[in-house]
Design a protein that fits this description.
Two copies of one chain form a homodimer.
Chain A lengths: L1 H20 L9 H11 L6 H12 L4 H22 L9 E2 L2 E2 L1 H5 L1 H21 L4 H15 L4 H11 L6 H26 L4 H28 L2 H4 L5 H4 L5 H24 L7 H12 L3
Antiparallel strand pairs in A: 1-2
Chain lengths: ~290, ~290
Amino acid sequence: MENSFTDRMTQDLVLIEEYLKNAFVAEPRCADLQEAMEYSLLAGGKRIRPILTLETCRLCGGDVQAALPFACAAEMVHTYSLIHDDLPAMDDDELRRGRPTNHVVYGEATAILAGDALLTAAFDQLTRADLPAGRIVEAVKCLSHAAGSAGMVGGQALDMAGEGRGLEREELELLQSLKTGALISAAAELGCIAAGGTEEQRAQVRTYAQALGRAFQIRDDMLDVTSSQEELGKPVGSDRINEKSTFVTSLGLDGCAVQVELLTRQGIDALSSFDNPSFHTWLARWLAGRNR
Amino acid sequence: MENSFTDRMTQDLVLIEEYLKNAFVAEPRCADLQEAMEYSLLAGGKRIRPILTLETCRLCGGDVQAALPFACAAEMVHTYSLIHDDLPAMDDDELRRGRPTNHVVYGEATAILAGDALLTAAFDQLTRADLPAGRIVEAVKCLSHAAGSAGMVGGQALDMAGEGRGLEREELELLQSLKTGALISAAAELGCIAAGGTEEQRAQVRTYAQALGRAFQIRDDMLDVTSSQEELGKPVGSDRINEKSTFVTSLGLDGCAVQVELLTRQGIDALSSFDNPSFHTWLARWLAGRNR
């Protein structure tokens, strides 16, 4: 059973990587810019967001192929956010997924533009889905809310504003639900939208993804303390160095582990009325336990 | 006649300013971020792009109110591009429309995020139009193409890459058609899309707007040489200082004036089959002659 799920994830990954690889082939306006966009977009990564889109589409009875542009749109938004977050004016990170960050390789100007172009391309991708116009409009609405000032960008702004001062637990929860949770949730919802799912299904999918997103972020904070640079592909201990409030500083490592388990169960429970949520159950457990 | 056109433009401006002022009222996630977004979005400016959207919608027989979200989406994309272009890593400008640029006031991190949020908000705006879903999808396609790596961002990347070396006339034409022309053209096309115009009408509108955009950019290059900081609200002579290739270095001031006149006529001619293009004729002449 375990094996069939990893096989299925691998199949999803093949679809995603293939799609992303060809996304900008026809747009050779500026070679440097395109190279910078693809440098980050094709740098691997777990592709959790597009996998969520494809699998939630399947869960809601939709066609995975039709959902691919939605899936890759979510990944483009994620990639752009990493490029901009790594900039010297933001987190000033020089290593990402084991490679120099975008601005280290291409310079700040091109990195800013590559991020801008990927964000813009995400919305173009949504329109390429072979789906009814109404679903595409719903997808644009969903992704723009999750990515914008009331979502991911708002979370990053709160993060920058909170650096160097202690954040209350609730502030940290809000910050992370915006910065990371909103896009993970939107990625899952995009699959439901692609499948033409009901409002009720979408709400259940949202609850699942939000719990997953929170567990994921708590696990991330734990890894920054317990892992090595080789394992993570980026420097560890940066939260402490930057005096960032994290779930580890707020809950301790043991408290974090309890929360991850609790959230994972909450997420799994949210999908109990679906016919066959076993892949999603496995995925939640896999994400909660990664790198242990 | 002249007066009735300026009155009409003033009425459009009232609609636009009112709409923009209320665009982010319901999104108070991060006060700093919202302030930075509004600082640049509500800084005045000529609002040429949204006026083009509204007036082209009218030209094609559509409802101006329904086109307002499209119009303001185009202005948000324009505003975001100014914020990012002004950043230290890009053009490093400290003055814009007579006020300190966004990053001077709010810092680089917030300025980057404010730009990101405005770009994202533009696509959200498109979905708010009370129009058939098919037209909204067409609008997302149109705006994302014009704004992305095959359009505005591509042009800015070419601009950065070309700094300090002489550009051939054709390179300069391509660069400007992407950097400035694409969005001006899209703004006009969005009006046609909102009105449910024909493909033929859209092509004519595109020809008009592209000619206008080129004339506008040539005039801009001229003003950088002939105008004062007080008149422009930003430092003059910056092109020369940055060793930028411009239409003035390529054609000379007299050559530029001839081109502006030629392009303005071309633009006006493109709309000859419409019932009443007189406002567009006046607008083209007004833009060509501004600040003389």
